[in-house]
Write a sequence for this structure.
């Protein structure tokens, strides 16, 4: 939360000349309401099931840049699905996260004592993020453009229109448009 995955993901997709997709948007479209309402009306367990379905569908159907919600990696099936893909963990410190998220943002998991809860969530999730990530990119005090550049460099990707016959456009070597995953 607050890492800038939607902004960075869209920039990265544009730079790579591919499509961008965000599973949080998919969930809201599928449920017909915003994520905070799903949490309030149906509970976290229901939301996580919708999230699991959305991530699975997106990984199978989408070949561009995909942003996953912060809790998606809690599901072991999702972690298995991400294994071997060019996953990027965008890491952010609590100070920058709170600046970006704000203390009044509609984030159900941060409703009470946001700083403390954010730290608890990161302590629980960080090992899972690093388990699935091919690279970790720090975002503190960096612009979305700087973060996008760091991802391109870390995964040895090429911007649209600069592909070389000698080098595949993806780290998987398939030459296809699968640019990366941000979570």
């Amino acid at each position: 939360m607050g890492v800038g995955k939607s902004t960075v993901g869209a920039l990265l997709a544009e730079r790579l000349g591919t499509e961008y997709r965000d599973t949080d948007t998919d969930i809201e479209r599928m449920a017909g309401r915003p994520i905070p309402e799903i949490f309030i009306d149906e509970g976290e367990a229901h939301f996580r099931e919708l999230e699991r379905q959305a991530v699975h569908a997106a990984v199978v159907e989408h070949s561009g840049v995909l942003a996953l919600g912060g809790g998606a990696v809690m599901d072991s099936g999702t972690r298995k699905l991400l294994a071997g893909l060019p996953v990027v963990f965008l890491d952010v410190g609590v100070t920058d996260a709170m600046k970006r998220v704000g203390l009044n943002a509609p984030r159900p998991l941060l409703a009470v004592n946001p700083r403390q809860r954010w730290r608890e969530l990161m302590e629980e999730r960080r090992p899972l993020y690093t388990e699935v990530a091919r690279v970790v990119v720090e975002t503190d005090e960096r612009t979305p453009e700087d973060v996008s550049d760091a991802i391109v460099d870390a995964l040895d990707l090429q911007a649209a229109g600069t592909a070389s016959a000698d080098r595949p456009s993806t780290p998987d070597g398939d030459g296809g448009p699968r640019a990366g995953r941000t979570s």
Q: What stands out?
A: The beta strands are 20-22, 65-67, 87-91, 135-138, 180-182.
